[in-house]
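The records we work with from here on pair a chain with its fold. These numbers are not coordinates but entries in a learned vocabulary of local backbone shapes. To see the layout at work, look at the sequence and tokens printed below.

. . .
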Amino acid sequence: MSDPNQPLNQIPQPTQRPQSPLNNGISPVNKGTSGMAVTSLVLGIIGLILSWIPIVNNFAAILAVISLIFGIIAIIKTGTKGKKKGRGLAIAGSALSIVALIITFSIQQSASKALDSIGSGSTTSQSSKSDSNAAASAKVELEATATGTGTATWGEAGSTSQNNFDKNWNKTITGSDAQKGYILTVMGDLTGTDSQKVSCTVLVNGQQKSHKEATGTAGTVTCDTSGLFN
């Protein structure tokens, strides 16, 4: 029953419900994807692909460094309080760039070792050819002298020859055999005078490398080629 004292023109107003925060006229912030995160991911992928190609991977290393820089910046800007999203893209791009750098440096190191090996092999081959040429052109001359008669004993280890001579004796050895170690021993006439002389001489390619002399009936000299070709 209405109150008789209430004015007739006064109508009760409906109770207003409180507005929801979602309907207060302010729309929620829509975060966009970070451009740096996307760039980091793209450059990281390209760098990883190119890192397997020698020489070209120098460019891949540059891209990987740029990708890593962009990725780190994007990770910072897409944090919990950041205004952009794409943190996962930034992390992926950074990881790919690090892998690309590791592959690039590994392949470049392997290529460098391969080139060094080729250069070393070429030097060894040239050295072997030089040694072969030297052996082919080597010439050793063994000479013996005596004022009268004498005996020359010569040869390499385990194999010797003996030659009697009058005043002069010589033996020429060429080719690879010349590089073997030879010993020459010269002995004078045991029945000769004390004034007799004997000598031995070793010549390598015309140059005197060893020369010895002795006097008397028991005079004996020895020359060898050991160490002349080392």
Notes: The mean pLDDT is 80. Residues 2 and 194 are 172 Å apart (CA to CA). The first helix runs from residue 35 to 50. The beta strands are 32-33, 84-85, 139-156, 159-174, 183-188, 197-204, 207-215, 220-224.
